[in-house]
């Protein structure tokens, strides 16, 4: 009887170990990224159908909240799906894995809105941003499945009027992006192009105003584009 009991205990321990190891493997950030993100964003975030996420000027300048909300909500109307059923700890594991690409700590941004001149911001946007980000923030030509549509730039400018982006990005983060630019992309530093921080705040305010606008006609335009190989 004692021998049988020991065998049962031993078998239970083995089953628990298998279960634990399997759960641990499945919930590692690297494995979760591989299972859910790499098909579009490439192994290690190097890029593919989706934009490269491992660019140091991207990953080191977005906060964890931006990444978490982007994973949770996706980009409605775009290829990026919403992972609404993913557990919070799984999303956090993916974010920690993404941070490991450069090893730098995440920046911390205020979520307070920037109050500035939207009208002036629209004019500056039309002068400085529309070529890449499109009229009304609709995104660069071919934004979506970038291997199946014609595109003008090596890394496509995202849609700034997308509800997922606007929910994820704080005004302060957008401001910093405009100040510093993004190496490895066409995104330039606006102060180096002669814009002041007041000008940049005005552009941020205009981008934030997209939240109050109806869905851009640009979305319909891209949806109507024929497949291209």
Description:
The chain has 229 residues and is mainly alpha-helical. Helix content is 49%, strand content 0%. The protein is built from 12 helices and no strands. Helix 7 packs across helix 11. The longest helix is centred in the first third of the chain and has 25 residues. The radius of gyration is 22 Å and the shape is globular. The termini are far apart. The C terminus is likely disordered.
What structural class results from the helix and strand content?
mainly alpha
Give the assembly state of these chains.
Answer: single chain
Terminal Cα separation, in Å?
Answer: 70 Å
Helix count, per DSSP? 12
Task: Using brief descriptors, characterize the structure shown.
229 residues; mainly alpha; 49% helix; disordered C terminus
Layout of SSEs?
Layout: H1 2-26, H2 29-36, H3 38-41, H4 56-59, H5 64-73, H6 88-99, H7 118-128, H8 130-133, H9 163-168, H10 171-180, H11 197-208, H12 217-223
Helix pairs in contact: 2-6, 7-11, 10-11
TL;DR?
The protein has 12 helices and no strands.
């Amino acid at each position: 009887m004692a021998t049988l009991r020991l065998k049962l205990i031993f078998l239970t321990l083995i089953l628990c170990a298998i279960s634990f190891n399997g759960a641990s493997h499945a919930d590692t950030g690297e494995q979760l990224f591989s299972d859910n993100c790499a098909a579009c964003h490439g192994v290690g975030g190097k890029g593919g159908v989706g934009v490269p996420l491992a660019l140091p000027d991207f990953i080191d300048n977005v906060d964890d909240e931006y990444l978490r909300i982007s994973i949770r909500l996706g980009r409605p109307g775009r290829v990026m799906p919403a992972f609404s059923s993913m557990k919070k700890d799984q999303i956090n594991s993916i974010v920690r894995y993404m941070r490991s690409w450069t090893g730098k700590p995440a920046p911390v941004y205020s979520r307070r809105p920037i109050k500035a001149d939207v009208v002036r911001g629209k004019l500056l946007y039309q002068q400085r941003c529309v070529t890449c980000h499109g009229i009304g923030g609709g995104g660069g030509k071919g934004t979506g499945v970038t291997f199946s549509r014609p595109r003008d730039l090596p890394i496509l400018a995202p849609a700034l009027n997308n509800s997922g982006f606007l929910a994820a990005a704080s005004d302060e983060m957008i401001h910093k992006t405009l100040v510093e630019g993004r190496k490895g992309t066409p995104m330039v530093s606006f102060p180096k192009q002669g814009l002041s921080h007041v000008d940049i705040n005005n552009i941020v305010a205009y981008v934030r105003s997209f939240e109050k606008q109806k869905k851009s006609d640009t979305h319909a335009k891209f949806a109507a584009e024929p497949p291209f190989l």
